[in-house]
């Protein structure tokens, strides 16, 4: 197993020009590889005995969350589209942490697959404690008129409908103390001139998070979100051209993109009892951008 090539947050913030032709992208083709391994610190067992479902868990933020959750004792049900190589690498890293993992390939835009995620998780692990709705796509367009009906439907189907479908299927199996975490985005708060439909889906997830939290609070189920800024994931080279990739993240106050393992700790906090008094909220790992959200 080839080790990941690390890139320090203190090194030159520029990424080598690169581009991928299909979404949501292949992590194994990125240079440098995103940092997914947790920062070295003592394992606290914060998720011991828990079962977590993570959609879009093969790479990027989902991969880093899966590895960190496994390190903290969780069993992982990992759903992904079709990036088998990335998924197998993530599964190997989870097992290296001593965790158990179940892999499922399919499209969360299909309600039948979301139901299958829940069925396989219950068959394999017998319970569900954490649901991370993380799968997403984005397709930049310079003009609103260029957003086709097909693109609009796909972006909403994956980013929003998938979160609804998975949540609806999982809730009958989630008991008091369970947690739902939705991945939204900084674009939900300040918009994006070239990701209009994507930003709209992420705004929908903020409203979904707040509304769902209010509905489920009496059932003892917490619902929160994470709104990352520019993070080095496969979505970036599969969304933008090589010149844009080279400049990615430089417009943040920290003047660099974040790494997935710098975001994963937000999910661990929200999933653990450390956040027992927090619901309906969104955390903002975005490199210092103030969005007042």
Can you tell me about this structure?
By secondary structure, the protein is of the alpha/beta class. Helices cover 36% and strands 11% of the residues. The protein has one domain: NAD(P)-binding Rossmann-like Domain (Rossmann fold, 3-Layer(aba) Sandwich), CATH 3.40.50. The protein has a 7-stranded parallel sheet with strand order 3-2-1-4-5-6-7, sandwiched between helices. Helix 1 crosses helix 8, helix 3 packs parallel to helix 4 and helix 4 packs parallel to helix 6. The chain starts with 50 loop residues before the first strand and ends in a 10-residue tail after the last strand. 49% of the residues are buried. The N terminus is likely disordered.
Task: List its traits.
293 residues, alpha/beta, Rossmann fold, seven-stranded parallel β-sheet, 8 helices, globular
